[in-house]
């Protein structure tokens, strides 16, 4: 897709356009978006696994508890109900 030199040029253009003041905010929002995407992918994979277990007539396993994360189905991605 993109090589290292193309990504470097894009990064330089982004720095020039956005300026140094906006970069920390941009990095935070990119990190937050990546975490949300990862959580959604994990939830979709878990849901698929549960559906497969139900189709095969098995009882799905109890959900794993991951320290520091709280995910409920009735909560939006930004934490609001």
From TrEMBL:
Residues 45-58, 71-81 have a biased composition (Basic and acidic residues). It is a single-pass membrane protein. Keywords: Cell membrane, Membrane, Protein transport, Translocation, Transmembrane, Transmembrane helix, Transport. This is Sec-independent protein translocase protein TatA. Part of the twin-arginine translocation (Tat) system that transports large folded proteins containing a characteristic twin-arginine motif in their signal peptide across membranes. TatA could form the protein-conducting channel of the Tat system. Its main location: membrane. It comes from the Bacteria. InterPro entries: TatA/B/E, TatA/E. Residues 45-81 are annotated as: Disordered. Belongs to the TatA/E family. PANTHER family: SEC-INDEPENDENT PROTEIN TRANSLOCASE PROTEIN TATA. The keyword Transport applies. HAMAP family: TatA_E (MF_00236). The Tat system comprises two distinct complexes: a TatABC complex, containing multiple copies of TatA, TatB and TatC subunits, and a separate TatA complex, containing only TatA subunits. Substrates initially bind to the TatABC complex, which probably triggers association of the separate TatA complex to form the active translocon. It is found in: Cell membrane. It holds the Pfam family TatA_B_E.
């Amino acid at each position: 897709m993109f090589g290292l030199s193309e990504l470097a040029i894009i990064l330089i253009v982004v720095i020039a356009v956005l300026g140094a003041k906006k970069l920390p905010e941009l990095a935070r929002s990119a990190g937050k978006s990546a975490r949300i995407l990862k959580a959604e992918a994990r939830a979709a994979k878990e849901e698929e696994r549960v559906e497969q277990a139900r189709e095969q007539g098995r009882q799905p396993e109890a959900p794993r508890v991951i320290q520091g994360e709280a995910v409920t189905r009735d909560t939006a991605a930004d934490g609001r109900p």
